[in-house]
Amino acid sequence: MTLVGRGLVCSYGPTRALDGVDIVAGGGEIVAVVGPNGAGKTTLLRALSGERRPDRGDVLLDGSPVSGADPGWRGRVGLVSHRTGLYRKLTVAENLTFFAALHRISDARHAVARSLETVGVATLAKTRVEALSRGQAQRVALARSLLHDPGILFLDEPFTGLDPAAAAALESTLRARRAAGGVIILVTHELRRCLGLADRVVVLQRGHKVYDGETGSADAADLLRFFTATSSDAS
Amino acid sequence: MSELRRAWLITRKDLRLEFRTGGRLLSMIAFVVLAGFLFAFALDHNLVPGRDVAAALIWLVILFASTAGAGRIFDAEEEEGAFRHLLLTPVSRPAVFLGKTMANLIVIWLVTALTFISLTAFLDVRDQGSLTAHAAVLLPGTIGLAATGTFFGRMSRHSSLGDTLLPVLTFPLLVPVIYLGATSTARVLLERPWTEISGSVRLLWAFAVGSVFIGAALFRHLTDE
Amino acid sequence: MSTRARIAGLALVTAGVATILVTHWMMAFWVPSEAAQGVVQRIFYVHVPAAWTTFLAVGIVALASAVHLWLEDERADAAAVAAAEGALIFGAIMLITGPLWGRIAWGTYWTWEPRLTLTLLLWFTYLGYFLIRGSVADPRRGKRFAAVVAIVGSLNIPLIHVSVEMFRSLHPGPVVIKPEGPTLHADMLATLLTSLAGFTLLFLGLFTFRYAVERLRRRPLPAAAGEAGEALI
To answer: Is residue C147 part of a domain?
Structure first.
């Protein structure tokens, strides 16, 4: 399974958030997208997930174009964003059962239990989301994104506000998904963390891709220096 | 069929949130009761019998309450960004629209019943005519209000003008509903024969069905980027 | 702006303004006064062409909006917004001249004449069209929303028309003198037709200019990137 973004251009009026970005993510691979604020990271993620149709360019899965307008595609995608995306007045189980039903999962109760188990918050099922800590809510959000066992997982700043234990749990879940052959695309501004986790890193700056390479390769340290320089430029 | 079931799941979820949050419902209820109260004070009952204006006021109060409520329909969806995730499930856009409209409609029914009671009580309308006939007029009218409110409520979420924009967008469209609804309700209050009303009710149904179908068909233009 | 658009727009506007000047001369010095209403009836030569132009513009907006929603074609949206401005301006002319005329002819500023009522409601719909367009952070979305408003507004026209007709039968207003009665004097008809031509040419000229400007405004800026895009999310 390979997800490819080709020549992606996304504009907000006269502002080009993405200006011709190419990206490839294979199965069993975690690709980190990093860059300073306003580099176009979130826009790239939205274009790849199909939430925003790009002005130009295509998103291809194994060579065939995909679109957010296609329910079949939406059923194969999981998303974790920096906001939890949960209903605060519903319990954890109510939230997840609702999303499981929308995902047409036949045995919703089982799927919800298994998914909560995976991220280690099974005991919270009957708690309302408003009573959860940030880390707990984020784990529930991760559980929601795994409900329908998506082949492709998008994460937008998932580490924001997580305590070290929750962050470690998230990392181990991602490693497990990678081992299962999933495509994982991770947007973050924390380069250090993703160097340890991701297989490849893509650096965006002002809507352009300025770096794309394996994290294990020799120039990772250079990258870190380069990135620190550019982000301090930007801020 | 399964899309209708998913629409119903959205309705149930919305109503659950509505009753757990309570704020929107409570303020709509307070609004309609207070509005009836104020109208009673604003009228000189020696010059204008409450009965003469009750129908018009009932419809205007329902219109204002549902318009005010429409701006809040998507609050719970946006609070933590849940709507983005809802849209990323395979659920179809017409189903989302129908589900949200149905929940809105049930809330509007509650408000309508209260409006009817509060205005007929405060304006001292003793003979109210057939309640079945009232329901037959109010049902298609409120469907039209619910569909229009849900549709433009979604649109105004994206506008920096927010709720102030809603009346500008919806009132011109809702002129037929208010006119047909208020004149029909007035006739029911006066116990005029149904044949005098049936034509208007048919038009109200035309608006109701039209607004639901058009809303469902165009809703993806409001949700998808 | 392309030279072609500039020449076409300039030619149309010049022809329109010239024709309207001729119309004013005809209105002031040439056409006979209508017997019953006297000199005030001459506002008819502004009111009716303004109304016609408004509905021409409304038709263009509805059509172009549908095309824009369907094909996401930028040109259709540029045409829609150019025509919508025309609808707003000529609609305002119609809504101002109508009551002025009505005050003398009918003895009242406002009457529930179906076309007058419809124009007022459409005028507000078009106000909404521009408000939603300008107040949505993502322009692509704003254009789509505006197109939806235009289409929904157009679809509601028949129901508004039926309602106003019913409403009028309940509220018999002052005796309406049909402005375009069958016994229109030949000179009056000539003046009206000249004015219609003038207004239409002026509208088409303004439309051409606005369309070209709109297209020009949307040429993407070279390699501008930025914070705004992310901030929108």
So the answer is: yes
Give me chain B's average pLDDT, please: 92
Distances (CA, A) of B141 to A107, C57, C141: 39, 31, 30
DSSP C223: T
Interface of C with B in 176-195 (CB under 8 A): none
Parallel/antiparallel/unpaired status of strands A200-205 and A208-214? antiparallel
Q: Does A134 touch chain B (CB under 8 A)?
A: no
Domains delineated in chain A: 31-38+70-234 (3.40.50.300)
Collect all residues of chain B within an 8 Å Cβ-Cβ radius of residue A84.
80-81
Domain encompassing residue C8:
3-177+186-218
pLDDT at C222 exceeding the cut of 80: no
Q: How far is C72 from chain B (nearest CA, A)?
A: 11
pLDDT of A214 strictly over 60: yes
d(CA A218, CA B113): 72
Q: Are C229 and A40 in contact (CB under 8 A)?
A: yes
With beta carbons under 8 A apart, name residues in chain C contacting B151: 152
Q: What pLDDT, on the 0 to 100 scale, is given for residue C229?
A: 42
Contacts of residue B173, Cβ cutoff 8 Å, sequence gap at least 6: B148, C125, C152, C153, C156
* Residue at C102 is within a domain: yes
Query: Which residues are registered as beta bridge partners of A3?
Result: A25, A61
Is 50 exceeded by the pLDDT of residue C116? yes
> DSSP state, C27?
I
Instruction: Determine the pLDDT at residue A225.
Output: 65
Find out whether A21 and A44 touch, Cβ atoms under 8 Å: yes
Alpha carbons C190 and C19: distance in angstroms, whole number = 12
Query: Which of A123, A127, A128 is closest to A113 using CA atoms?
Result: A123
- Taking CA A187 as the corner, what is the angle to CA A184 and CA A193, rounded to the nearest 5 degrees? 90
Q: Say if the Cβ atoms of B81 and A79 lie within 8 Å.
A: no
Dist CA A86 CA C172 (whole Å): 57
Q: What are the tokens at C82?
A: 């150019």
pTM, two decimals, is 0.90
Rounded distance between C-alpha atoms, residue C9 and residue C89, angstroms:
18
Give CA–CA dist A85/A76, Å, rounded. 18
Q: How many domains does chain C have?
A: 1
**Residue to substitute from B25, B74, B85, interface A, most A β-carbons within 10 A:** B85
- What spatial distance separates the first Cα and last Cα of chain A, rounded to whole Å? 37
* pLDDT value at residue C117: 83
Touching chains, A (3+ CB pairs < 8 A): B, C
Query: Inter-chain contact B90–A71, Cβ cutoff 8 Å?
Result: yes
In this structure, is residue C231 part of a structural domain? no
Model ipTM value:
0.90
Q: How far apart are CA B53 and CA B186, in angstroms?
A: 8
With a cut of 70, which residues of chain B have pLDDT below it? Answer: 1
| Cα separation, A119 vs B219, whole angstroms | 35
Residue C81 lies in a domain: yes
